Amino acid sequence: MKAPGRPLFLARRSYRRRRLVDAMRLLPLLGLFLFWLPLLWAPATTTEPDTAAGGFYLFTAWAVLIVLAFLLTHRLGDQPQPGDDAEGASGPREDEGGG
Amino acid sequence: MVPFDILVAVCLAYVCILFLVAFVAERRAERGKAGWLRSPIVYTLSLSIYCTAWTFYGAVGYAARSGLEFVTIYLGPTLVLIGWWAFLRKLVRIGQAHRVTSIADLISARYGKSNLLGVVVTLIAVVGATPYIALQLQSVTLSFGVFASGTPEGWALPDQSATALWVAGGLTLFTILFGTRNLDANERHHGVVMAIALEAVVKLVALLAVGIFTVWGLSGGWQGVAERIAASPIAELPLVPGRWMGLTFVSAAAFVTLPRMFQVMVVENSDERHLATASWAFPLYLFLMSLFVLPIAAVGLARMPAGANPDLFVLTLPLAEGQGKLAMLAFLGGFSSATSMVIVAAIALATMVSNHVVTPLWLSLRAGGARAPGDVRGLVLMSRRVSIAGILALGYIYYSLSGGSAALASIGLISFVGVAQILPAMIGGIFWRGATGKGAMAGLLTGFSVWLYSLYLPSFGDSGLISPHILADGPWGIGWLRPHALFGIERLDPLLHALFWSVALNAFGFVAVSLASFPGPVERMQGLAYVNVFDDDPGARAWSRGGAETEDLLTMAQGIIGATEAQAFFEAEARRQGVAGYLPDASPDFINRLERRLAGAVGSATAHAMVAQFAEGAAVSAQDLMAVASEAQQILEYSTQLEAKSEELARTARQLSEANDKLRDLSVQKDAFLSQISHELRTPMTSIRAFSEILMDPELPAQMAAHYAGVIQEEAVRLTRLLDDLLDLSVLENRKVQLSIRAENLHDLIDRALRSASNTRAERVFVIHRDQATEHVPVITDTDRLVQVFINLISNARKYCDAERPELTIAVRRRGARLTVDFIDNGSGIPKKSQSLIFEKFSRLTDTQRAGGAGLGLAICREILVNLGGTIHYLPGQGGAAFRVSLPLRPQSAGATAAGDRETA
Q1: Which of chain A's termini has less CB crowding within 10 Å, N or C?
Q2: Which residues of chain B lie closer than 8 angstroms to A69, CB-CB?
Q3: Does the pLDDT at position B709 exceed 50?
Q4: What CATH number should be reported for the domain holding residue B861?
Q5: Tens-place pLDDT, residues B311-325
Q6: Sheet (strand B871-874) strand order
Q7: Which residue of A has its CA nearest to B81?
Q8: Alpha-helix residue ranges (DSSP H) falling in B474-562
Q9: Considering the domain boundaries, does residue B437 fall inside one?
Q10: Is there a single domain that holds both residue B167 and residue B204?
C-alpha cells in the first residue's frame, strides 16, 4: 500500500542518498562474489603453486572492499541529512515493508 | 632468551597497567567526562575481541596446516560489517530501543518475553563458550611453557594446570572488579571497554612487529616471502569449496551471535553512528591481523625444526632467531588476546545467567513473589559475580578434561558452529513478523541437539562421552545415525557435516513451526516493534491500561535499580506528564517505559513478570490488539498529529484541573483558616480583656493581681508568636528577607536541629538513624534558616509519627553541586490525596491532631528553601512520612544574598 502524501519522485539530493544506501547494501554481495571467485579456479588441478598468488588476490580484494566501505560511509556522512536518523531510515523502510 | 622470572614480572606489570587504565576510565566516566571514551575508534577497537588467542597463535597454525583457508574466519565478519546498513544497524537500534542486556535477552524479548527461550539461549551460549575459554587458558599456558622450558621445541611446562589456574583466578578477579560495578547491563562498562581497546592495540602491534620481522628481517621482503611460500608444503592451494563457503558463513554467523560480540557490538554501543566508522575500520583491523599470517607460517615451517608446534610460531620464531624482546612483545600480544576475550565473554555470559536463570528462579521460589521484592540489586550483583567465577571454572575444567589435546583452530570452530544455532531465530526475529516463539524454540533445540551429538560430544575424543563404537556404527547399530555421517552422508568432513545438518534442521524447524503456530499477543506486539524498529511509534503497547498503584511501582523499582535512580526516573516521568512530585499517573505509556528501564537491569522477561504483578488484568489481550490494528488502519494519516495534539491537550487539561482543584481546596482552607484565626485571636483577646477588667478592681489582693497579669502575659506571647509566624511567612513570600550567608558543617547543623527539636513531645523516645560519614559536608547558606527547616521537620516527625517504636532516618546525599537531606520516619505516612496540600499555608491534616501552631510550619519551610535556592518535597514510597530537602552547596550566583535577586533579575 502506498501511503498518500508521499512524493512519487524524489529530489536529486534524496535520490542520490538512497542510491548510496543501495550501494552500501550491495557491498557485501560484491564481497561475497570476490571472496568466492577463487573457487572457480579449481586450483588443485593445476601444477603451478598458487597459494601466494591466491593470497595476493584475496588481500587485494579485501583492501578494495575496505576502501569502498570507507568512501561510501563518508559520502553518506557528508550528505546533509534533513532531520536525524529517523529521516534517513524512512527510505529503506519503504523497501523492507514487504518482508 | 628471556628468563622466566622476568616474563612473569612483565606480565604482572602489564596487568597492573590494565587495572590502572580501567580504573581511570571508570573514574572519568563517573565524573561525566566520558568524551573520547565513547569515540568510534574505541568502539572499533573493542570489537577486536573477535580476535582471540585463536587468531593470534592459531591462525598461523591453521595456515601452516591448510594454507589460505584460515582467512575465511575473517572474511565472514568483514562481509557483515561492510553490510552494516542492512543488518547491524537494525540490530543495534533494537538493542538500544529495548535496552537489551544480552543476546538471550534479545531472543527472549522478541518472542513474547518468554524466559524459557532466554534459558535455552543461555544454555547454548554457555556450552558453546566453555571450550572457547578453555582454548584461551590453553594458549596462555602453552606460551608460558615456551619460555619456561628454555628450548622452543619443548613446550611442556611441568606444572601446566597450576599456570592455567592462576590465569583463570586473575581473570576472575579483574572481571568481577570492573564488570559488575553497575547493575544496569545497558550502561557501558567504560573501564572494561577501555582496557580491551588497549589490548586490541597491543595485539595488533605485536603481530605486525613479528610479521615485519619475518618478512623484512628473515626473508628479504615480499619477493622472498613468495618464494618461501612456493617452496613450502602449503604452496598448493587445496581449496575445498564446501569448507570455504561453510567457514565464511559460520564466521559471519558467529560474529553476530557470539555473546561476547553481541556485548561489545550492541550492548556497549553508545552511538549508532559508531557503526559507520567500524564498518571500514574493523575490516581494516582484521586485514592487518591476517596480513602476515601466511608469511609467518611459511617461514616458520622452513626454519623451525620438524616437530615444532605451528600454533606457537608467532612466539617461537622470534625466540629461535634470538629476538628476546620481540618474543616478549608477541607473548604480551597473545596474553592480551586471551584475556580480553575471557573478560568480555564472562561478563556477557554472567549477565545472561543471572538475568535468565538465577533471578527468575529466586523470584519464583520466594514466598511473596515479585510483590515484595526488597532489594534485588544485591542478589543480582552477587549472582553475576558467582556466575563469572563459575564460567571461568567451567572453562578450566574443560581444559583439564580435554588435556589441551586438540589443535587451537578446531576448538574455536566447534564453538562457532554452536552459537551459530542462534542465527535463524535472530534473523527471523528482526526481519519476519511471522516468526513465533514456538518456532524459535523448535529451531534452537533441534540445532543445539544436532550440534551436541555430531560435533561437541565427539570433540572430547575417544575417552569422552561418545564411545568409539557409536562413532563407527551409530547408536544401537543404526548406521544413518552415526554422529559424523547423519542420514548416510559420509563424504563431508565432520565440521562441515555438523554445520550443514544443524543449521539446516534448525532453520527448517524454525520456519515450519512458525508457519504452523499462532503467536500470543505480547509476542505479536514485540514482533511488530522489532521488525518496524525504525518507525518512531510502534503503535501498540504491552499494557492496555494503567491500574497499578504508582507508589507500589516506585517501591519495587527502588529495589531493582536503586533508590536514587528510581526516584530520578519517576520524577522525570511525572514532569513529562505535567504532574508535580514523584508520582506520575500509571498510564500505559509510563508503565511501558518503566518496564523497559527495569529490563535494562534484569532483562525483559523478569521485568515484565515483575511489572505484571502490579498491573494485573492490564496486560494487553488479543482483542485489544485487533482493536488497535483496525483503528490504526483508519486513522493512520492523522494519528501522529492528533496524538501529539491530544496529548498536549490532555496534559494542559490535567494541569488545569489540578490547579483548579488546588485553588478550590485552598479557598476552602482559607475560609476555614480565617474563621479559625479569628477564633484563635479572639480567645486570648477575650481572656486578656476579662482579666484586665478584673485587674482594674483596686481591692484585688496583690497575689491574685500577679497571677492574672501572668495569664495576660502568656496570652499576649501566644498572640505575638502567631503574628510573628504570619509576618515571617509574608516576608519570605515577598522575597524581601535578609539572609546571612555562612559556611558551616552540615553535620553540626543536623546536631543542632536534633537538640532543639527534642523539646517537642520530649516524652517520646526516638531511634535516630544517621550516616555520620556522609554528613560532613560544608554548606554555604543561611544556616540558621536551614536549621529552622530541619527543626520543623524533626518536630513534625516527633509529633505525628504514629509508630509504636518510632524511628527517624536522616540520609544525606551529594548530587553534583546539590545536596539532598531526607527525613524519613516509620509512621503511616501521608495519604496520597493530601501529599500535594501539606506545603500550603494553613493546611493541617487532621483537626483532631492539633499539637499547637497554626499549620504554617511546612509552608514556612518551603518558602525558606525557595529563598535559599532549594526545594522541599514529599517523598512517597519510603514506608513512612518522608521529606526531601534539596539545596545548592553554595549560593547559585555570586553575591546573591537573597533568592529574591534571582527571581527579579
Answers
A1: N
A2: 81-82, 279-280, 283
A3: yes
A4: 3.30.565.10
A5: 888 888 888 888 778
A6: B767-770, B807-815, B818-825, B882-888, B871-874
A7: A28
A8: 494-516, 521-531, 550-561
A9: no
A10: yes
